[in-house]
Amino acid sequence: MHTLENAHVRLTFDDRGRLAGLANGAGDVEIPIDPEALTHAWEVQLRDAAGEVRAVVPSDAPAVRAEPRALTAHWTVSGDWGALAVTATVRLPEDEPLASWTVEVENDTDCALWQVAYPRVSGLAAFPEGGGELAAPRSSGTLTPDPVTVVNHHRAEVSDETRMEYAAFDTEGGANIADSYPGMWAMQFMAYGRPDLGGLYFGVHDSAALYKRFGLYADGKDGAHAALVAKQYPEDRTAPGAGLSSFYPVMVGVYPGPWWNASALYRSWALGQVWCGKGPMRDRTDVAQECKDLDLWYWNYQYLNNSHPRAIVPMIRHLRESLGCNMAFHWYSFNGEMFFRWRVPWGPPDNEDIRYVLLRAVRELHELGVLVIPYLDCRLWSSETRSFQEADGDKWIVRDEKGEGTVWPGLGLAWTMCPTARPFHDLTCTLVHSLIDTCELDGAYLDQVTACNALPCFAENHDHPPGGHDHWVRGYRTLVERVQREIKAKGPTKIVTSEGYIECFMDLFDLDLGYTLGRLRGLTGVAQVMPIPLSQSVYHDYRLTYGTSNKGSDTNMDAFRLSDALVLVGGGQLGICGAFRGDENREPYLPKLEYVKTLVRAHMAGRPWLNLGQWLPPAPVECETMDLVYEEGKPPKQGIPCVLSGSFLHEGEALVVLVNHTDREQTATVTFDPAACGRAPGSAPPLPPAPGSEAARDTGPGPVGLRRIHPQTGVLETKLEKATQKRFTFAPASAHLFVMGACQR
To answer: What is the CATH T-level fold of the domain 621-742, as seen in this structure?
Structure first.
């Protein structure tokens, strides 16, 4: 046995180089690793000239070199296929909470190095008392209860609709909670723990945002254990005899308490990356102030959507005039094509009559003070278009290792293009210019860049090694940097948005469509999964997001209210989707619109915090909970607080926003923590002490200066109360805001 430890964390390895124990420095947060269920420390996949893949795992104990702050394990594995030399190193600096893991592979075979799975934190069991939970970076973030049971026993159910719309076909099969980055994973860390205890931090700290896969996998074939695994790739995945030296470290450690303390660890690294290099949103001069002041987005998206101005503009006018909020319009099918007749990417309408109607609507919306952003696909290129044929677009399709391309399910011959393809860059920029110059639109929404999975590309004529390596991030960053540079030259209020939360592109967009912040439908059919603001807990003050997954025609009102409340307390700009002319006066739209208006008024009142503030852990709320059956025939989502809470720091003061999302009056006791106030801008929330430690047994928070913002008027009450806990009775479907600052004890 070998041990690495410091004041923060202790790692114990068995004689076969496998992690057999993990705990915090005090020993009171211990990760449930079963030493009897450990599997292999690593797995290497080799691919021969015929395309056959062989998995190689260690068969013997490694030679280990122990140093005060590092352990190095060396294996040699051979067979009739050749030999591999694998060297794994774990380093733990004296004052760091995380250990870094790297690997080197020397490949003495005639095969290509196809994939290296390292590290493998195997033998993971369920946490006692409930199984624990896994925070994963799918889009804005998801929380899966009892994840070890899920990956071993859940039957994944991914509908064709889900595969089409959300690229969930990127999953690796079974119920494994694993995906690619950059792609369906928007950040590079996961947190497996129990909120009253703490948990395991598993993060890839890759500044170059290279293609990789990681996640939680069923392991051991006993139905009771799992492994957290990172899958790394060489620069050239086709070169016989090529090796690998890790391009980045994988970080493993222990965090205390809920998942957001794992976010604080990741944030301390993430803010130093290129995608945060322009600084927090409040300081960015390249993003128009109009974006920073938005409250509500209208989105006409729904299948077979209604895109005609006569159905849309009256509803936007109603919202703008009845609320007085700052609005933008996210316009699908703006050129007159129906959604299912995509000839992507769309450009201005060819039909002169349609173009005239479009231009007249844009001018009317501008008179209302509404930004108008049209849809433009930035991933797919239809081979039915003239532009594809003239550019010989077949040369620029993403090709897999068999030379085959990929079309988007359900959309005909819409091919996924390699992001490094310069002809596709030229086309995208030309279309964006045309939308602004000929249709007077305010920019463009470049769909899928920050939302969908990366595809390894093996096309030999492209500007990247076979397999891709950095092709996805480099290609898209080059394209979007060009788009931004060219449209900002037209005026500072021209904006570019995308869909989703992939971190390595966030500095290139003014905002992102972030409706998954309130999306209740689990993409792999696990009904109990809940959305969480994982991305916001790291980056809220560095990016703006907007939108809702709700539609006006939805029939589950409990789910509708919960979903939009999650968007508000998570710090997203709100949205209205699927409501058209006249719907404001009829069922089933009227109660939904009135509820959204309530939340929008709250957003208007708390706008500086909700758009520009640093995310803080939510103020603790004691209230009733509810179960919600979201999908018929599936288990309910359980233990949902009837009053949701969100907290944000801006200019030294913290805002607490509370929403009673039920149709009943609710009583709640809220704890206001003055420690949340006065942090340095951009700093990560400090890690709380472990439960039971001396620091945790302090006398508790001091009094807090508490003022209430009236959500109807936005007026901040001047009365100053000193309290740490207050009991409230909240009206049904209502929102409430409080501003707090620390007081003297």
So the answer is: Immunoglobulin-like (2.60.40)
